[in-house]
Structures are given as C-alpha cells and as structure tokens.
Amino acid sequence: MRASLRLGRGRVVARDFARLRLDFGTQGLSLDVADLGLGARWVSIAFKDENHGAFSRVELTAIVDGPDGPQGTSLSERAFGHGRFTWLGRLPAGTTALRLTPMLGEPGLSIAEFTVTVQSRLALVGRAALRRPVLTAQALFWRSVGKRVRSQHRLARALVPPGLTAYDTWVRHLDTLSDADRARIAAEVAQWRDPALISVVMPVYNPGVRVLEEALRSVRDQLYPHWELCIADDASTDPAVPRLLARASAEDPRIRVVRRPENGHIAAATNTALGIARGAYVAFMDHDDVLPAHALYEVAKAIRREPDLDLIYSDEDKIDAEGRRFEPHFKGDWNPELLYGQNYLNHLTVVRRSLVEAVGGLRPGFEGSQDHDLLLRLSDRLDPARVRHLPVILYHWRTAIGSGTFSDAFLARAEAARLRALEELVARRGWPHRVERGPLGFNRLVRALPDPAPRVSVVIPTKDRAELLRVVLDGLLNRTDYPDIEVVVVDNGSAEPAAKALLEKASADGRVRVLARPGPFNFSGLSNDGAAAASGPLLLFLNNDIEIAEPGWLTEMASIAVEPAVGAVGAKLSYPDGTLQHGGVVLGVGGVAGHSHPDIGPDDPGYFGRMVIAQEVSAVTGACLMIRREVFDAVGRFDAERLAVAFNDIDLCLRVRKAGYSVIWTPHAALTHHESKSRGKEDTPEKRARFEAEVATMTERWGPELRNDPYYNPNLARAKALFRLW
C-alpha cells in the first residue's frame, strides 16, 4: 500500500505508508500529514477501501490542532462505488492529519490507495468555469472584493464532480456484489465457528409460480449457507404451487414444507411455518419477495458481533415485475415513538425465535398489519441495546400487480388492524392515552395530560421588535387552550418606545413577568435566567418570532414532556408561506447539524411519511423546545459560556440523550416561525468568529455523535437533511 503527495504540475513525492504515521484507534484510521504543509491548500484526495467492497461507506475528516486540542472537520467525500472515494477542496488551515472512519459500524479499514494532489488555483478556476460558470464568476467577484471565505465556498461548489445521480446508478456502483465481494464473503464465513442457524419463515398462498420460484431461488443463492427455509402452504388452490414446493424441498434439504389443511390467512400460516423452525433466529419473508445474496450474511455477521441481539432489521427497496429496483427506504435506528405510528422496520426483520414464541407469534385477525402488531408486542419486552438496524438494503419488496399483498387489496382493514394493535399496547401498559387515525392513515397516539395540568413557563428572550413580540404574546395568552401558562419575557435591553410600551402593558397581566437583562446577546444566558425566574415544572423556550397557528399545540407538547422517559419535545415550525422550517434536527448535516426536510411544502408528508408522524430525533430547535425543569437542571442548562448563540439547543438535547432521555418531535404541535427576523445574520467579523468558535466547541464535544445521527442513515446525503442520496 502506498500514499503519495502530488505537488504542482505533476511533480510527485511518493511515501510509503510505513513512513507516514498511522493510528488505528476507536475512531478509525488516522494519517499524519503534519510535515506535508497541506493546511489552507486546495487539494484532491482519492482513496479506496478494499475491506468492504461495494458496500463501503467511509467518512473523511481533516484534523486541526487547536488551542483546546485536536478538532475535526468533516470533508464531504464523493462515493464512486466499490470502495472508491474522492474529495476536492481547500483543507482547513493547520491541518495535521486526515482521518478515515467506517460509517456502517464495521471495525476495520483496508486502504489500498491514498493519493493527495495539491492543485493549482488557476487550473481549478478553469475547471470550475467549465462545470459551473455562474458560480465561478461569483467566486472571482468575491475574491476581488476581499471576501475570501465566500469565494472559497463558491469555488468549492463549482468544482463538485457529477457523482451518482439516480438510484439505479447508485445500485450499480454501491449495492452490487462483485466477484471479489462474493469470494471475500465466502472466505470469511468459512472461518466462522458455530455459525447461527437462521430460519426463514414464509407463508405461501397462490402466488404466481414465477415469482415464487424467484423468491425460493433468492434464498437458495444466499452466500451464508447456514439457513433453513420453513414454508407453510396455506391450502393453495393452484396445483402448481405445491408441485413447485415439493420439488424445491426435494432438491435442497434446507427447504422444509408443511401444507395446511385449510386456508387461515397470513398470520396463521406464518405461525405454522414458525412451528417447524429450529434456528435461534427467524427471518420473515413474503412468498413473492426477494433477498439479495448477502442478506443473511449481513444478519449473521451482526449476530456474531453482538450475540445478545434480539431484533435485527435492515433497509429495503421495491422491485417491479421486470426486476427493476426502485423507491429505497433508508431507515433510522430503533425509534419506538415512530413505531407507534407506522411499521417502519419491515423488511428485512429478524427476531430471536424464543422471543417471538414468548409473545405468542402472530395474531389472526390483524391481517394486513400482523407484522406491526407483532413488533408492538415485542416492544414491550425489547431492550433497545439489543436491537440493531443494518443500514444496508437486504430486502426487495415486490409491488407487481397480482402479487397478492393483503394490505394493498384491503387497505382499510389493514389500517383498522394497525390502530387496534396500538390501542391494545396502550391498554397493556395501563396508559390513560387514546389512539386515533392520523394523517395518511397512520396511527396517532394522543397522550392524556395529568390532572391538574402542570404549569408551563414560557421563556421568551427578546429585544425591541414589538410587532413580533405582540403576535407571540397574543397567541400564548389568547389563542392557546392550555389551562396554566406563565410567560417570562427576558428583555435584552429594548430601546424602541413601542417595545417598552408593549412590555409595560404585558407585565400588567398576572400571567406575564418581564426580566430586564441588558448586555450582549447571549441566548443561552438569557434563557437560563428566564428559567431560573420561572415557577412551572415544565419549561418552554420560545423565540419571539413565533406565531401561534392552532390552540391545542401546547397541550400536545406538554402531554409528551411529562412522561418520565422523555427529556425534550419540539414542534413543527413552518415559514409564513407554509414551507417547513423545522421537522427535527439531523446531526452532521452541513457540518454540525441541520433541520430535517427543510423547505418541503405544507402538503408534503416527507420521506415515507416522516413529517406527519411523531418520532424520536437527536435534537430539536431551541426556537420552540419544551423540557421538564428537573431534566434541564440535571443536565446543566444551556451552555452560556461557549455556546452563547448557535448550537446551544443541539448541545442541550445531546446532553439530555446522554443522560438517558429521549427527544421527541411532534407534527401535531404546529406553529409559524418568522426565523431570525429579530436578531439578524452572521454578517460581521465578530459574529463569524463567534460562530466558528461554537462550531469548534461542538465538534470537540460531540464529534462521534455528529458523524452518525441514529435517526438518519449513512447512505443519505449530509449537505442537507433532504433524505436523498445526493
């Protein structure tokens, strides 16, 4: 293996990896480049990971030695398939190392090539002008007026290579096994001792013979050989089906078939298949779907890494009658709040067999949502630490007409079964909540407030801009139906007569208190002061540019925030034109964090309905954040010293999660946000320096967390949280 540094116009200095210090630590592979003088230079970096073949996902990070120790800046590398990556841009000043980190939880990297080429600025401008002339012209203009940061940003955007642009291209480059991949997997499995037996259970009833043949073949073609296929023929009336099943079982003793005497539908048939399973784990598969060749290998590999796992699930896509793959579902990690609303886990779902048997298997009468019902019952017993999401597509769900999918043909009955499954969960757990049909037919859990309802203390930092504050105060005091509200307005030195008059008038209302806190703007400090002066057990931090859209929003947030396992709650915030501003926060997006689904329209449900269902997220915006006072005090409040303005809400939520609480975003508390009207932009050298210091604080404090948001997916782009590949 070699690393090389190319300088100027083709002049090459080659260096063996042995001469460049390498660290294989818990954060991946680190290449020491301190003596190469790469800081603040435009370079291209190319490398190849041979350890993971087509499925390699690697993060490239530049390490800079700062006053508070090493700090990392993620470089948005481009994947070009089969382990190959490239990056082109300007490295941060003072770069001392380049770090490579596998993003799919794999323990090792095998870098066969690593090339750094120092680029001529003139050549880069020429290349950028050919690709994106408008952006290049903007870069040259900002350079001419001394705005180097803006110039560098636009030049970097103009230089972005085309990369992969469609799902079929992504599949070809990043999700297709090569001969080398197959050989690597076979060699690895051959060395395993005591491999786990995985029982694939398949209910069968009158599928098309061709699609059933394809389903059976996909199991027989598994690169992991330690499986059994347990089939229950649910009294198929097409004589071709039992003939095909008999032939398959005769050809491969791992295929075992039992024929039911009468049709009992999918739940009963699946239970029959479960009854002949012998493996420690069962994988659920429909009679017309397809497993990729590495599916059971990936599952078995996860079990070998973590033998205590109880539930494993993967990403999936759809397949049409011609075998074309489309509509991939790249999922997040375990999210019980989201599971209440939809069965986001299926498919591929693999469960410890003893656990399935302990809850009684699938239940007849829940057809169409029988898997969702099973997962909700399993969730009563699951330890989140023993659930693992594999961010790899391991299941192809057939959508061809005539495939016999129950929930397509009987959607209303499937929705009713899903609703009943959640109602029974609520009853089992003794909750006083109710369940109702939510948007698009998904479940909605409507929590009950304690009686009496706890006081909500709303903390609003503000300065001047009376026209904004007047709207939010009117919404809180006159347009919100919550029974016990206290408003603490923290005035950061208002000087405008209209603002002073409004504050004086508002303070006459017994529900409103005004705290005078003049001085430099410090959102964290102002919010902490407001919380200290508040009297309620529930704290709601609210921007002064929020407009109340409907009366029940605060009840929705408070009913979630009072739950002992919940640490913080966020709301759905939209711009005045109805486009989405905040749908939860995704870590690592844009460097530190970014809002989920930014700017989607008011009628857009988001990625697989994510923006119409309550769910756990990594963080929510401080523009509207509710938290119990006991949790707020226990985790140390907002960081007023190092995160005065930016990222204080993200930092708080991460500390809340580290303390063991969940952070919930709900679309059923909807408000309008006139974002940043009251404070302005980061448009001065002082503000930019402060912002850069806050970025450094977050990367130093939360580097590993920012690299891997559990509720996003490493296959999705991180420039923005648009839930797209690029």
TrEMBL record:
Domain Glycosyltransferase 2-like: 199-324, 457-635
Gene3D superfamilies: Spore Coat Polysaccharide Biosynthesis Protein SpsA, Chain A
Keyword set, alphabetical order: Transferase
CDD domains recorded: GT2_RfbC_Mx_like, GT_2_like_c
InterPro entries, per the entry: Glyco_trans_2-like, Nucleotide-diphossugar_trans
Source taxon at top rank: Bacteria
GO molecular function, one term: glycosyltransferase activity
Name recorded for this polypeptide: Glycosyltransferase family 2 protein
Record lineage: Bacteria, Pseudomonadati, Pseudomonadota, Alphaproteobacteria, Hyphomicrobiales
